[in-house]
C-alpha cells in the first residue's frame, strides 16, 4: 500500500492511473470543440465533462494529501529528481486550477453548478464578473495541462526506452 524507494504503492498507482483515465476523458473535449460536437464524443462523454472535472478535483486533493504522507519515502536528491518533482508540482497545480477555473466560469456566468444530474449551486445565484473573468482562464489552463501531460508522457517514455533506468516500473 505504501510507497518505497523502488516503487509506488498501490494507493499511489490507483490514484495515478485512475486520474490518467479521467484526465484523458476530459481532454477529449478538445476534439469536441474542433468538430463542433457532431460525433460520438459529444453525445456520450462530453455531457459528463463538468461532473468528471469535479471528481478529478476531489481526487487531486486526496492525492495531494496522500503524497504529503509519503514525502519522506520519495525523496530524490539528484538535479533530475528535483526537476521531475517541480514538473509534478506543476501538474498538481494545474489539476487544481483547471477545475477551479471551470467552477468560477460556471458560477460567474450564472449557470450554477451541477454534478451527475444534481444541482449543487442554483442557476443565477452567484453571477459575478470577477468569477467569470477568473473562469475565462479555463481553456488556457486546460491547454497548458494537456501540454504538460504530453511532456510527462514523453519524459516517462524517454526514461523507459532511452535511459532504461526502470523509473516507469515504479508506476506499474
From TrEMBL:
Membrane-spanning parts: 7-28, 48-68, 89-111, 131-158
Gene3D superfamilies per the UniProt record, alphabetical: Transmembrane di-heme cytochromes, Chain C (1.20.950.20)
Compartment(s) where it occurs, according to its Swiss-Prot or TrEMBL record: Cell membrane
The protein's required cofactors: heme b
GO BP of this protein: respiratory electron transport chain
InterPro entries named in the record: Cyt_b561_bac/Ni-Hgenase, Cytochrome_b561_oxidase, Di-haem_cyt_TM
Keywords in alphabetical order: Cell membrane, Electron transport, Heme, Iron, Membrane, Metal-binding, Transmembrane, Transmembrane helix, Transport
Bilayer topology annotation: Multi-pass membrane protein
An example Gene Ontology molecular-function term: electron transfer activity
GO cellular component: plasma membrane
Pfam short name (any one): Ni_hydr_CYTB
Principal subcellular localisation of the protein: membrane
Domain Cytochrome b561 bacterial/Ni-hydrogenase: 8-171
Homology family: Belongs to the cytochrome b561 family.
Protein name: Cytochrome b
Species for this entry: Cellvibrio polysaccharolyticus
Biological classification of the source: Bacteria, Pseudomonadati, Pseudomonadota, Gammaproteobacteria, Cellvibrionales
